[in-house]
């Protein structure tokens, strides 16, 4: 295959993953068969099999694609903010914005499907670690109260896990994106000097 052909193949794969993410975010995925997905994307099942060997692997790959893109966008937003409080707020609110397009059905399917849930859980752990590092930086610079960053991050991680497991939505009625905004407000007001 020529380089131009390889680039076209890579671009087509990325386009398919973007279309799959949009479809899954809007409508969920548990109820779809591979035939349904192929029909909706106007492609063949063999095209889908080129992306993943079965539906579970496809769901996993699409979920990874979604979170990889979300992480890149969150970090890009974070790069434009200065000050510890602003950076924490920007980070958590940006995480929430990345989840805004996700329909309740997508979130429920992700919580109920092990291959997708594992990806969400891993990304939740990474996000909690990122918050811990932002808190540590803020405490070290004197911009934030001297708190035990690991403890605060553990509390944040617990809330993030509850958001991910749909417990916050059930208890409060808040969508995941709204819950992240509320968490950002609570955390930054509690940490400022």
From TrEMBL:
Pfam families, from UniProt?
A: TetR_N
Where does the secretion signal sit in this chain? none
- Residues of the HTH tetR-type domain: 10-70
InterPro entries noted in UniProt: Homeodomain-like_sf, HTH-type_TetR-like_transc_reg, HTH_TetR, Tet_transcr_reg_TetR-rel_C_sf
| Gene3D superfamilies reported for this sequence | Homeodomain-like, Tetracycline Repressor, domain 2
Keyword annotations from UniProtKB, A to Z: DNA-binding, Transcription, Transcription regulation
Task: Report the DNA-binding ranges.
Answer: 33-52
Q: Which PROSITE patterns match?
A: HTH_TETR_2
Report the protein name in the record. TetR/AcrR family transcriptional regulator
Source species, please?
Answer: Rhodococcus zopfii
């Amino acid at each position: 295959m020529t380089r131009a052909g390889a680039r076209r193949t890579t671009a087509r794969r990325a386009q398919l993953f973007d279309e799959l993410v949009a479809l899954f975010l809007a409508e969920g995925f548990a109820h779809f068969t591979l035939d349904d997905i192929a029909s909706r994307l106007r492609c063949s099942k063999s095209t889908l099999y080129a992306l993943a060997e079965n539906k579970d692997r496809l769901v996993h790959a699409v979920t990874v694609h979604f979170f990889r893109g979300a992480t890149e966008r969150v970090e890009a937003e974070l790069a434009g903010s200065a000050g510890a409080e602003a950076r924490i707020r920007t980070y958590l609110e940006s995480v929430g914005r990345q989840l805004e397009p996700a329909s309740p059905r997508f979130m429920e399917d992700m919580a109920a499907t092990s291959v997708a849930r594992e990806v969400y859980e891993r990304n939740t752990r990474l996000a909690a670690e990122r918050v811990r590092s932002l808190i540590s930086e803020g405490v070290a610079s004197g911009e934030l109260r001297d708190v035990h960053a690991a403890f605060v991050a553990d509390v944040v991680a617990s809330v993030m896990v509850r958001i991910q497991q749909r417990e916050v939505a059930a208890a409060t009625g808040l969508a995941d994106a709204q819950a992240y905004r509320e968490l950002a407000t609570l955390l930054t007001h509690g940490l400022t000097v």
